[in-house]
Amino acid sequence: MSIFADIFWDLMDYKSKINAEKLPKHIAIIMDGNGRWAKQQGEQRIFGHHNGVSSVRDTTEAAAELGVKYLTLYAFSTENWNRPKDEVEALMELLVMTISKETETLLKNGIRLETIGDIDSLPASCKYQLQEAKEATKAGDRMTLVLALSYSSKWEIVKAVKEIAQEAKDGKLKPEDITEELFAGKLCTSGMPDPELMIRTSGEHRISNFLLWQLSYAEFYFTEKLWPDFRKEDLYEAIYNYQNRERRFGKTSEQIQ
Ligand code: FPP
């Protein structure tokens, strides 16, 4: 490349640099840093969660516009139930309010809402709103937005194992029938492709009980940005970074080329 082409390339925004042929089909995000963001503003933690909704909207819109097929957001973990009661209640209220406000937009944009996690453990108002939104958007075929709610990977794996054990006990399944495909089919994400890219905001380098099975071969992208500051351009940068990695799946570099 000439020096001018190099300079031109450097000036281009990340969106223009994304290769549409190499888009991840599924992106999973650990939205982290709402509390710290609020503290920086001298506000209560819930102020951070409220502002995090704008990032959810922006990221969902950007992913759908690009042509990503699945976007999974870690909105509430099993462990989050241990937070102060006020914060848990405020988060649940925010969830109900946001889902009810955004269902129309999801519908208009062909986005289907799905959930993974122990949905039965959520408050009744939350379950109701989610059910309504899932039903209303079920025909959406542009992108599936998956909310992980009261979710943890260990919970999901134990649940799958129990189901398999029961089927074996009932004589419906033999040990040799248990394959990776059968096991994946018992997880909450059954039927979805595994995420190729996992993003975590706020500078933490942890997986926090999120999609342990499904992220086996995902590329991890960590950013210092706190979730309420995460915008479309940040998603484009993460995808561009992902597209410039060599994914070897256990093979050698020469075998890939
Ligand atoms: C993590 O930040 C964030 C959460 C546990 C909740 C995420 C919720 C939202 C963005 C709002 C609603 C979401 C939807 C999908 C409508 P943290 O509180 O752990 O931040 P900290 O690490 O700085 O304390």
How would you explain this protein's 3D organization?
The structure is a single chain. This protein is α/β, with parallel strands linked by helices. The protein has one domain: Decaprenyl diphosphate synthase-like (Undecaprenyl pyrophosphate synthetase). Helix content is 46%, strand content 14%. The protein has a 6-stranded parallel beta sheet with strand order 3-4-2-1-5-6, sandwiched between helices. Strand 3 (111-116), helix 6 and strand 4 (143-151) form a beta-alpha-beta unit. Helix 4 (45-66) packs parallel to helix 5 (85-108) and helix 5 packs parallel to helix 6. The longest helix is centred in the middle third of the chain and has 24 residues, at 85-108. The chain is globular, with a radius of gyration of 20 Å. It starts with a helix and ends with a helix. The structure holds farnesyl diphosphate (FPP). Farnesyl diphosphate binds at residues 31-36, 45, 49, 52-53, 56, 73, 75, 80, 94-95, 98, 147, 202, 227. Farnesyl diphosphate (FPP) binds next to helix 3, helix 4, strand 2 and helix 5.
